[in-house]
From TrEMBL:
The keyword Coiled coil applies. This is Transcriptional regulators-like protein. Keywords: Coiled coil. The keyword Coiled coil applies. It comes from the Archaea. Residues 118-166 form a coiled coil.
Length: 168
């Protein structure tokens, strides 16, 4: 069982507070999307990914509040070039945030986000732990086979050396 929450924000913010609210909704809804979670699980730098997602959501919300590229850059501490990329949907993260904004607009300023239940996550973790145990066991078996093969190769080398000495 999962939990469905409804997030709401003005799609055309008129104040700094509205822009922040839009940024938070964009960030939260984007982060909790299945495709974002899947992408997050496959990236090496998860903290960097989350930080960039936050920056993209914030930049887009500020842009919607008619902040200049320079002001957004200054507020977020990122280069103007990056702000432009975020507001134009120039990379994967920006496209994810932009799609959430489009959905938010089409629904009149609200979006529903599904949060997976803890039980389903626990079940998934338990399954992964079992798979991990099986893989570790298989690794140990393979390491034992490699060790056995090394011993066999050493015996063959020794036997070949003996034969070679016998022939000379």
């Amino acid at each position: 069982m999962s939990l469905l929450i409804r997030l709401q924000a003005p799609v055309h913010p008129g104040s700094r507070g509205d822009a922040r609210l839009l940024g938070i909704v964009l960030y939260t809804a984007t982060l909790l999307r299945p495709e974002t979670l899947q992408l997050l699980s496959s990236v090496e730098d998860k903290a960097g990914f989350i930080k960039e997602l936050y920056a993209a959501a914030s930049a887009l919300s500020m842009f919607r509040a008619n902040y200049s590229y320079g002001l957004i850059s200054q507020e977020l501490g990122i280069p103007e070039k990056t702000v432009r990329r975020y507001t134009r949907g120039g990379d994967t993260i920006s496209k994810l945030v932009s799609s959430v904004l489009s959905e938010l607009e089409s629904r009149g300023g609200y979006i529903e986000v599904e949060i997976p239940s803890v039980e389903s996550l626990k079940a998934k973790i338990n399954g992964l732990e079992e798979e991990n145990k099986e893989l570790r066991k298989r690794i140990q078996e393979l390491e034992a086979q490699v060790s056995q093969l090394r011993n066999t190769v050493e015996l063959v080398k020794a036997r070949l050396k003996e034969l070679q000495e016998t022939l000379h």
